[in-house]
Structure formats: structure tokens, C-alpha cells
């Protein structure tokens, strides 16, 4: 469909029109119309994104930044235009956008670059990244494993200490504890913009201010914010940020690392090989400026182009409108689950001053999350089950797994109501009511 920009709120009628753009959402599961409530794990793809990736292979496919023939030139132009499109989406410059395979790779790129700097690589320019015994890396208890394990490994490689900011009992980052943990020894703070389990939009500005007061770098995991709300990374004053295309209507296999230009050009590279060098000798080599210094080997060309098309789609609908619609769906989901006997929701309740996205992770008393997920699936409802790659936050609240329902722009209030009706029947079905 053709989307006309508007400031009117999204409603059920528009969400249904948008849903028609997504071929997979027209299928049935177990004889029931599919209700897809797992966009927090991966989003579905509109026809325009599918078509542009197919068209690239049918009409343009060639290696970028290599060769002087027509196809190579066209492919390179599309590839770099996609980089510029992503940069505009997050308020950055194009040389501040590095292509990765996913957000996890981006976080590892930062961690290993710092590790290389700590070994003396990168010369004087990389001094700001060097850490060692006595230095501290700080993260939080609610992080996805991708924003925890790389920092554990960096601490082990460098001798630095990893410290963790805890959560309040209602599932918010404890800012008093953050002020106590982030101190003069802190060299880097890594935090999620939005929790993939608790659904809360975290107080990034306060955490950045604490980090800045001690000269620490800030790394932002924007995987659950970039698809759902307007994002201006320079305005947030973070040093690095990552997000993945597959959660925001684009294909798998494409991620984005944002870094302030002067930092990217000072950070030693992680992956090395072709395409990221200027001169190669038998003993040593010289590297290109960022972002190419971090893009070794054959690139994710079709995926990057498709990501740019996905961003066009999101911008045409309007991220502010998407954010408002998901907040409405999320409130309906949270309040509905709160009324179901025997259901416990992780994370803070919607309230003034508490920002949430359209997801909720919950426990049904007496029924394992996997059984809840299967019960929903039998009724055509796709939801996530497990620890969602966030074991520490589940442990903090005394559970091993939850069921998570997460909405997106193509969901309706009827989808939420169907899920609530199904959850209300779980305990009776398993005879634990």
C-alpha cells in the first residue's frame, strides 16, 4: 500500500491496513488466523522490503567497493545510500554508521576494540580506551546477554572489574545505586534503552549524566527502542549504540553500530582482512578511516538496502505515531493481564513518569511458560517463552522463564483481547485454578 504521512493517531482500522502489507501475517496456524505477538524477538517484513531485496539480486547484484564495472558502481551507490538513510534515521553522520551482522556483533566489536587498545594497539589515539586492573566496567541487572557477556569477557581479558547496577522491586534501574556504582574508576557504562523483558524505557539521560561526570564512555543497546520510538543518538549523548534490522521490519543478517566519529577513528579494529585496509605489507598493514575500518570482507549489501527501505516504511507511518499506538496496546495488555487471576507481570506498572513500550512478560502460577506458549500457539497466537536471553533479570524476580507478548504497528486491540482471553483460560486448562 501507499502510506500517506499524517499526524492522526493510529487506530485499529489503520493497523489492519498496515497488516495487509505483511504477507506472512495473512497465514493461519493450527487452523486459526495468525496473531503475531512476538515482534520483540523479530518483526515481520512488509512486501516493499521483500521486493527491494529481491530486486537487488535480480537487477544489480555485485561486490561493493570493488571493481569499476557498472554493476559494482550501482551496488556501491545503493549500499552507501542505505548508510546515509540509517544515519538520518538516528540523527547521525554517515561516517558514524558501521554495518554489522546484528547488534551482538556490534557490542563485541566495541569490546574487542577496547581489548585491542588495552594491549597497546592503536597508538596514542587509542589511549582513551585502555583499561586494566583497578578500572571498572558498569552495566545493569536487566541487560540482554549480548550487553552483558561481552563486558564479562572484556573484564577477564583486561583485569578490569565488572560492576552491576541493580533494580528496584518494581523493575526499574535503581538510580541511587547507579550513583553509588558509577564513580571515578568507571571507564565504560553499558545500558539498554528499553528492557526486552520488563518493557520499561530506561532513564538513559540520568545514566549518561552520571557517566559523563566521571569521564566514562556510554554504550547504548537500542534494539528495543529503534523500531518503536523516535531515536536521536547524538541528542542522547551516548558514545556508541547498536540495533538490529530484523526487529524493525528489515531482514536478518544486518545490524548497525553507531559511534561518535572521533571515537570510531581512534578505536582499533576487531575483524581484519580485505576492504578495511589502505596498505598491506607482509609484516604490517594500515587501516582505512571509519566506518570502513570495521567492515572487513564481503558486506551485507542486500540486507543494508532492505533496512533503508524498512526505515522508509517506518518513517512514512511515523515513529511518534507508532510509539503512541504501541503504548495504547501495551496499556491494554498490561491492565488486562493484571485482571487475570494467578498472573504476575514483571516490570513497572504504567504510571505517570513511567514510560513503557508495548510488551509484557508474565508468569502464570502453576504453569510453565513453555506450556503457556504452546497453549497460545494452539489458538494461533505467537508469543515468546523462556528467559529471553536475560537470565539475571528473571533470577532477580525469582522466576526461570516468562511468557512475553510484544506488539508492533500491525497489531490491533482485537489481537490483544484474543491473547488476554487465551491467558485467562490457561490455569483452568491445566487444572491448576
Automatic annotation (TrEMBL):
GO terms for biological process: cysteine metabolic process. Residues 35-418 form the Aminotransferase class V domain. The keyword Cell wall biogenesis/degradation does not apply. Its cofactor is pyridoxal 5'-phosphate. Coiled coil: none annotated. It holds the Pfam family Aminotran_5. The keyword Transferase applies. It comes from the Bacteria. InterPro entries: Aminotrans_V_dom, Aminotrans_V_PyrdxlP_BS, Cys_dSase_SufS, PyrdxlP-dep_Trfase, PyrdxlP-dep_Trfase_major, PyrdxlP-dep_Trfase_small. Its EC number is 2.8.1.7. One of its GO terms (molecular function) is cysteine desulfurase activity. Belongs to the class-V pyridoxal-phosphate-dependent aminotransferase family. Csd subfamily. Catalyzes the removal of elemental sulfur and selenium atoms from L-cysteine, L-cystine, L-selenocysteine, and L-selenocystine to produce L-alanine. This is Cysteine desulfurase. It comes from Herbiconiux oxytropis.
Amino acid at each position: 500500500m501507499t502510506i500517506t504521512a499524517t499526524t492522526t493517531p493510529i487506530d485499529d482500522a489503520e493497523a489492519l491496513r498496515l497488516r495487509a502489507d505483511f504477507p506472512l501475517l495473512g497465514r493461519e496456524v493450527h487452523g486459526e488466523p495468525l496473531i503475531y505477538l512476538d515482534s520483540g524477538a523479530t518483526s515481520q517484513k512488509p512486501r516493499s522490503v521483500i521486493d527491494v531485496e529481491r530486486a537487488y539480486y535480480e537487477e544489480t547484484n555485485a561486490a561493493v567497493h570493488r571493481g569499476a564495472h557498472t554493476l559494482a558502481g550501482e551496488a556501491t551507490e545503493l549500499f552507501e545510500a542505505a548508510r546515509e538513510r540509517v544515519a538520518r534515521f538516528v540523527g547521525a553522520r554517515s561516517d558514524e554508521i558501521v554495518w554489522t551482522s546484528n547488534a551482538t556483533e556490534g557490542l563485541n566489536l566495541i569490546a574487542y576494540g577496547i581489548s585491542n587498545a588495552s594491549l597497546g594497539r592503536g597508538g596514542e589515539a587509542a589511549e582513551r580506551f585502555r583499561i586494566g586492573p583497578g578500572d571498572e566496567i558498569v552495566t545493569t541487572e536487566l541487560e540482554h546477554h549480548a550487553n552483558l557477556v561481552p563486558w564479562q569477557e572484556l573484564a577477564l581479558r583486561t583485569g578490569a572489574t565488572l560492576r552491576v547496577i541493580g533494580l528496584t522491586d518494581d523493575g526499574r534501574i535503581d538510580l541511587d545505586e547507579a550513583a553509588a556504582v558509577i564513580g571515578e574508576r568507571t571507564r565504560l557504562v553499558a545500558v539498554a534503552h528499553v528492557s526486552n523483558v520488563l518493557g520499561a524505557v530506561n532513564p538513559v539521560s540520568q545514566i549518561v549524566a552520571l557517566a559523563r561526570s566521571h569521564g566514562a564512555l556510554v554504550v547504548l543497546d537500542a534494539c528495543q527502542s529503534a523500531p518503536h520510538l523516535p531515536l536521536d543518538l547524538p541528542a542522547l549523548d551516548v558514545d556508541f549504540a547498536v540495533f538490529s534490522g530484523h526487529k524493525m521490519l528489515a531482514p536478518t543478517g544486518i545490524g548497525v553500530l553507531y559511534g561518535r566519529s572521533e571515537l570510531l577513528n581512534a578505536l582499533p579494529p576487531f575483524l581484519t582482512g580485505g576492504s578495511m585496509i589502505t596498505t598491506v605489507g607482509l609484516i604490517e598493514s594500515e587501516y582505512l578511516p571509519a566506518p570502513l575500518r570495521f567492515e572487513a570482507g564481503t558486506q551485507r549489501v542486500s540486507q543494508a538496502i532492505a533496512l533503508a527501505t524498512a526505515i522508509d516504511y517506518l518513517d512514512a507511518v511515523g515513529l511518534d505515531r507508532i510509539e503512541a499506538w504501541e503504548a495504547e496496546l501495551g496499556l491494554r495488555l498490561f491492565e488486562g493481564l493484571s485482571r487475570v487471576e494467578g498472573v504476575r507481570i514483571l516490570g513497572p506498572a504504567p504510571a505517570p513518569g513511567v514510560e513503557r513500550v508495548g510488551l509484557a512478560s508474565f508468569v502464570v502460577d502453576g504453569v510453565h511458560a513453555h506450556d503457556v506458549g504452546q497453549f497460545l500457539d494452539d489458538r494461533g497466537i505467537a508469543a515468546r517463552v523462556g528467559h529471553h536471553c536475560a537470565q539475571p533479570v528473571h533470577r532477580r524476580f525469582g522466576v526461570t522463564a516468562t511468557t512475553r507478548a510484544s506488539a508492533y504497528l500491525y497489531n490491533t486491540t482485537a489481537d490483544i483481547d484474543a491473547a488476554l482471553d487465551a491467558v485467562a483460560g490457561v490455569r483452568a486448562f491445566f487444572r491448576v485454578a
